[in-house]
Design goal:
By secondary structure, the protein is mostly helical. The chain has four helices and no strands. Helix content is 60%, strand content 0%.
Length: 156
């Protein structure tokens, strides 16, 4: 009979950092996630997955920033059409600081796991961008043809 309990699992889950320590603008090397701050230099660089997926990319980091960002972008789009500007600023910030932000606020076993997770975000960002472009082009072609047919039929 196996006497192991739920606390004896082979893979130990790391604690989720408390939200009061999660300041995305914090420039210190402190890592509330429990990751080794000395490895920040190994993960420096541009984070294209965070750039392409921006506010959704924040959700697995367990921050309230994802919710706040979504609400602000949605409200600005509804009120003044400025949500795209805010989203672009957020995307550029995450492109430049996303690796550091993710390492500080989300637990990873090692640098290799971190790089694999960020590569997956990039892959899905490219897939969704390509799908959006194809759908947009398809809709433009369909509606463009429809409008041209209406205009051509109305001029006779």
């Amino acid at each position: 009979m196996d006497n192991r309990g739920p606390n004896d699992l082979e893979q130990v889950k790391q604690p989720v950092p408390s939200s009061d320590k999660m300041n995305p603008f914090d420039q210190t090397d402190e890592c509330p996630s429990g990751n080794d701050p000395a490895k920040l230099s190994e993960i420096e660089g541009l984070n294209w997955g965070a750039f392409l997926m921006n506010w959704i990319w924040l959700i697995p980091i367990n921050t309230t920033w994802a919710v706040i960002t979504f609400v602000v972008i949605f409200a600005l789009n509804c009120l003044a059409g400025l949500g795209s500007v805010v989203q672009l600023v957020l995307a550029i910030y995450l492109l430049l600081k996303g690796n550091r932000f993710a390492w500080k606020f989300r637990p990873f076993r090692d640098v290799e796991e971190f790089k694999a997770v960020q590569a997956a975000w990039l892959k899905w960002g490219i897939i969704l961008l390509a799908a959006g472009l194809l759908i947009g082009i398809g809709v433009a072609v369909l509606f463009g043809g429809f409008i041209m047919a209406i205009l051509a039929g109305g001029s006779r």
